[in-house]
């Protein structure tokens, strides 16, 4: 057995009927040329016949004794995993469009996972128009984060369109790193040893963490400093209580177009993502008559996983940046976002890598305490909206000869944060997944449309006519 880390266990602690803590991926494939009518049925049958279910897919939660309930539960291999339960075959009424697919994924993502089983489900969805099908996979956030999830799913696919009899995702093991001194068995002495190591590390890092905390307090008192602190965003339509039902919407843009605009404006790709989201939210809230005078803030996960680490636990830090939603002029809005993200990055870079996990817990503890105490959505939020940008595979991929056309992240929301926007790059496109509360954001699909219009507006403001024509030709 393996004990969960503190950050992974925190996702279990805030799980509730209204806030299930699972994340997912929607992949859209086109059927291979000449595929028989039974292609998907046969593929699902082969998937279910897989004998060896690898970690983390084959692990379920156990709480053996008092220590686990106080510290964290353990992962245990489920020797009798029921693949008929975990692997499901659904169909849209033909011809199923993007709207019908979004409705089905919204419904599937609203259902909590069964905690008596391994915490994942895989849904093969046939009947999508233009001879396509969907693959929606969800896993609990205590098992996996966005970066490790993309890497795990990418290892299942191939760049060879002729390859067949491929393994399903749950048979592929994450690449193992060389064991380190921190790799301990799931035992009481190991838990005590790990706790002592953590206390020593916290004592060593205390001065650096104290300095980081002081910088955030100073920034809250002096907003002109440019560093966005927790609790400085206003209470908005996005920051009330949520219910268990979800809405899901998608959008995608050519990466080359975004990179050209980023280069011309002196911004990073992440800055541009924040600009598109901030601009869409400004328009959305204006139409609702609910745009706060103060700018909305974004909580932005930052990957701190080493490049050679193929593990599946959560290894992220966090930064907070302004979305400048109070600024009406597009270029001024982008400039304010650039300044805010630059200061946030400088703030993180002053911390050694060994202190980033402790800093993340320090920064996120008010957010987690809000959820645990029931105060989430009842007081000023730590930040207004979560926005992530996850790098994905650059080359076109296939599964059983079916071409992967697009990948969309499906994320989680919680009380006090009714919207999550996660981007995933794939084969020259940046794919946006909007996950929101069905009752709080009844017209959430408009946000996807508004990001496109914000992109056109920025392009008109930045690129001269000749470059705009070149960009349009490149898009065609």
Automatic annotation (TrEMBL):
<keyword id="KW-0444">Lipid biosynthesis</keyword>
<dbReference type="Pfam" id="PF06974">
    <property type="entry name" value="WS_DGAT_C"/>
</dbReference>
<comment type="pathway">
    <text>Glycerolipid metabolism; triacylglycerol biosynthesis.</text>
</comment>
<dbReference type="InterPro" id="IPR023213">
    <property type="entry name" value="CAT-like_dom_sf"/>
</dbReference>
<comment type="similarity">
    <text>Belongs to the long-chain O-acyltransferase family.</text>
</comment>
<dbReference type="GO" id="GO:0019432">
    <property type="term" value="P:triglyceride biosynthetic process"/>
</dbReference>
<keyword id="KW-0443">Lipid metabolism</keyword>
<dbReference type="InterPro" id="IPR045034">
    <property type="entry name" value="O-acyltransferase_WSD1-like"/>
</dbReference>
<dbReference type="GO" id="GO:0001666">
    <property type="term" value="P:response to hypoxia"/>
</dbReference>
<dbReference type="GO" id="GO:0071731">
    <property type="term" value="P:response to nitric oxide"/>
</dbReference>
<dbReference type="InterPro" id="IPR014292">
    <property type="entry name" value="Acyl_transf_WS/DGAT"/>
</dbReference>
<feature type="region of interest" description="Disordered">
    <location>
        <begin position="163"/>
        <end position="187"/>
    </location>
</feature>
<feature type="domain" description="O-acyltransferase WSD1 C-terminal">
    <location>
        <begin position="313"/>
        <end position="458"/>
    </location>
</feature>
<dbReference type="GO" id="GO:0051701">
    <property type="term" value="P:biological process involved in interaction with host"/>
</dbReference>
<dbReference type="InterPro" id="IPR009721">
    <property type="entry name" value="O-acyltransferase_WSD1_C"/>
</dbReference>
<protein>
    <recommendedName>
        <fullName>diacylglycerol O-acyltransferase</fullName>
        <ecNumber>2.3.1.20</ecNumber>
    </recommendedName>
</protein>
<comment type="pathway">
    <text>Lipid metabolism.</text>
</comment>
<keyword id="KW-0012">Acyltransferase</keyword>
<dbReference type="Pfam" id="PF03007">
    <property type="entry name" value="WS_DGAT_cat"/>
</dbReference>
<dbReference type="InterPro" id="IPR004255">
    <property type="entry name" value="O-acyltransferase_WSD1_N"/>
</dbReference>
<keyword id="KW-0808">Transferase</keyword>
<dbReference type="GO" id="GO:0004144">
    <property type="term" value="F:diacylglycerol O-acyltransferase activity"/>
</dbReference>
<keyword id="KW-0319">Glycerol metabolism</keyword>
<dbReference type="GO" id="GO:0006071">
    <property type="term" value="P:glycerol metabolic process"/>
</dbReference>
<dbReference type="GO" id="GO:0005886">
    <property type="term" value="C:plasma membrane"/>
</dbReference>
<feature type="domain" description="O-acyltransferase WSD1-like N-terminal">
    <location>
        <begin position="4"/>
        <end position="273"/>
    </location>
</feature>
């Amino acid at each position: 057995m393996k004990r969960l880390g503190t950050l992974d266990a925190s996702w279990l602690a805030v799980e509730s009927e209204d806030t299930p803590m699972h994340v997912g991926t929607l992949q859209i494939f086109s059927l291979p040329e000449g595929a028989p009518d039974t292609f998907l049925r046969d593929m699902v049958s082969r998937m279910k016949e897989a004998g060896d279910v690898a970690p983390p897919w084959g692990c379920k939660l156990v709480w053996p004794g008092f220590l686990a309930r106080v510290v964290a539960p353990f992962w245990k291999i489920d020797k009798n995993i029921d693949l008929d339960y975990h692997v499901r075959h659904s169909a849209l009424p033909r011809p199923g469009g993007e709207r019908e697919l979004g409705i089905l994924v919204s419904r599937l993502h609203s259902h909590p996972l069964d905690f008596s089983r391994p915490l994942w489900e895989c849904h093969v969805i046939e009947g999508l128009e233009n001879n396509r099908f969907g693959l929606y996979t969800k896993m609990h956030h205590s098992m996996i984060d966005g970066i490790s999830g993309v890497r795990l799913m990418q290892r299942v696919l191939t760049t060879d369109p002729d390859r067949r009899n491929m393994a399903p995702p749950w048979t592929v093991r994450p690449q193992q790193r060389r064991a380190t001194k921190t790799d301990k068995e799931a035992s009481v002495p190991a838990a005590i040893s790990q706790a002592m190591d953590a206390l020593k590390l916290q004592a060593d890092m205390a001065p650096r963490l104290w300095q980081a905390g002081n910088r955030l307090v100073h920034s809250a008192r002096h907003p002109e400093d440019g560093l966005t602190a927790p609790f400085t965003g206003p209470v908005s339509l996005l920051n009330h209580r949520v219910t268990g039902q979800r809405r899901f919407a998608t959008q995608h843009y050519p990466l080359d177009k975004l990179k050209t605009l980023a280069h011309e404006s002196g911004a990073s790709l992440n800055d541009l993502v924040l600009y598109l989201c901030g601009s869409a939210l400004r328009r959305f809230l204006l139409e609702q008559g609910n745009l706060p005078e103060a700018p909305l803030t974004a909580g932005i996960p930052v990957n701190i996983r080493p490049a050679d680490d193929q593990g599946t636990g959560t290894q992220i830090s966090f930064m907070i940046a302004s979305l400048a939603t109070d600024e009406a002029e597009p270029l001024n809005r982008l400039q304010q976002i650039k300044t805010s993200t630059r200061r946030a990055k400088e703030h993180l870079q002053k911390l050694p890598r060994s202190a980033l996990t402790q800093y993340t817990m320090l920064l996120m503890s008010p957010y987690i305490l809000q959820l645990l105490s029931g105060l989430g959505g009842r007081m000023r939020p730590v930040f207004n909206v979560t926005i992530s940008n996850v790098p994905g595979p650059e080359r076109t991929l296939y599964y059983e000869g079916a071409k992967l056309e697009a990948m969309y992240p499906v994320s989680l929301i919680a009380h006090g944060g009714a919207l999550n926007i996660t981007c995933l790059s794939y084969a020259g496109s940046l794919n946006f997944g909007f996950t929101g509360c069905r009752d709080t954001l009844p017209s959430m699909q408009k946000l996807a449309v508004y990001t496109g219009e914000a992109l056109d507006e920025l392009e008109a403001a930045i690129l001269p006519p000749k470059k705009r024509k070149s960009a349009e030709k490149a898009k065609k």
